[in-house]
């Protein structure tokens, strides 16, 4: 399947396996157990038996893709690789988490970039074979219309206090023209938002504590609430924006649906395309059983 996560995983497995093998091949003796040696030959055989066929399949497939890219004059720019790298980082929870995984695995960034280049090249080779029809888009929209609808949302900030007395003190400062963001930084016990002036961003119903939500959705823009008690403490809420609920419109989500259908069809078409190439190319393997 042409799945970037699968392609990424296979590339990482291959890189780690090769790195381990090369590291241990520096010395004929790779380990001892009660003085009995485990040799590099033992290790090589174990790696080949467990990963050899899979790793070779990956290398053969990558070679086919690269030759096809050259034949069809398919180019992948540095900007395209950088954009896709951001998606990889997001999948791992952000840039810092991604770098930590890379550091721990010992895989070079250049290996990931090469893997991304092959993935994007494969997409460009296969996409011309896929035709997304208008009726396909309409059908998908009709079946998933509810998921595209805009739920009612509000944007708000809050100051979280441990006790009611402190909450009343802060509220008084706000009524005396105190700056909400500054007071959030000074007083709020919510460490995830206090440095951002208490900003919570947009949210819909069902995402916040019931008492918090009931108050916030009844407020007007720029209105500041009295202290609201939840299990977390006492909140002072300020609503900063609203989005009304709206029914989904096909024109607004057409490109999103097209991309979704394209990704789905790529999964299937990749298998067909690759089987064709395996038939077309002269491939010889020399791994011993």
TrEMBL record:
Keyword Transmembrane helix listed? The answer is yes
Q: What is its EC number?
A: 5.2.1.8
* Top-rank lineage group of the source organism: Bacteria
Which intervals hold domain PpiC?
151-241
Molecular function GO labels: peptidyl-prolyl cis-trans isomerase activity
Coiled-coil stretches noted in the UniProt entry, renumbered to this chain:
236-263
Q: Is the keyword Coiled coil assigned to this protein?
A: yes
- Enzyme class comes to isomerase
**Catalytic activity field:** [protein]-peptidylproline (omega=180) = [protein]-peptidylproline (omega=0)
- Tell me where the transmembrane regions lie: 7-26
> Which UniProt key words apply to this protein?
Coiled coil, Isomerase, Membrane, Rotamase, Signal, Transmembrane, Transmembrane helix
The name under which this protein is listed is peptidylprolyl isomerase
